[in-house]
Specification:
InterPro entries: CBO0543-like. By secondary structure, the chain is mainly alpha-helical. Helix content is about 75%, strand content about 0%.
Length: about 160
């Protein structure tokens, strides 16, 4: 019962956060969300199929999908949208590194809690440091993808601002 409550609260919170984050810039938020869903789906499927991680307690697709649909398609993609929305683009390297470390640490702490206190995740041939690396890599890829997709629009926007 505890696992089910945590999953429901995570999903509801993620949906509310997405709506709040996307309110100002829905197009960018949606592109990041879909990109991370695709990325997380492939990586999550690989991890689950090779039995590196098991998800004994799930709400959605209990039998047909070995990965964690709730985390890979709702919670983590929304978390990446939040990461991208508040990313300090114009700050120095130390601030950016601290931002990565803070966001990564928060989700790793939640994963560590889930490992100790619930039966929603079980690490077989996986370690938390591997999760930290893959989460940070996903953050980097989501920022790079967003920059790449919206580069022409950002250039046009900056050109129109400077010509005014």
């Amino acid at each position: 019962m505890k696992e089910k409550s945590i999953l429901i609260i995570s999903i509801v919170t993620s949906i509310v956060l997405f709506l709040l984050a996307a309110k100002k810039n829905i197009r960018r938020s949606t592109v990041v969300l879909f990109f991370v869903q695709s990325y997380a789906w492939i990586s999550g499927l690989i991890v689950a199929e090779f039995n590196l991680i098991k998800y004994p307690k799930k709400l959605i697709f209990k039998k047909s999908y070995k990965g964690s649909f709730e985390f890979e398609h709702i919670v983590f993609p929304v978390y990446c949208v939040m990461f991208n929305r508040f990313y300090p683009h114009m700050k120095n390297g130390f601030i950016k590194s601290s931002y990565y470390a803070g966001f990564t640490s928060f989700i790793i702490l939640l994963e560590a809690y889930a490992l100790k206190k619930t039966r929603s995740i079980k690490l077989i041939h996986w370690k938390l440091w591997i999760s930290a690396l893959t989460i940070s890599a996903t953050f980097y890829c989501s920022i790079a993808f967003e920059k790449w997709v919206f580069k022409p629009f950002d250039k046009a926007k900056n050109k129109s601002i400077s010509s005014s």
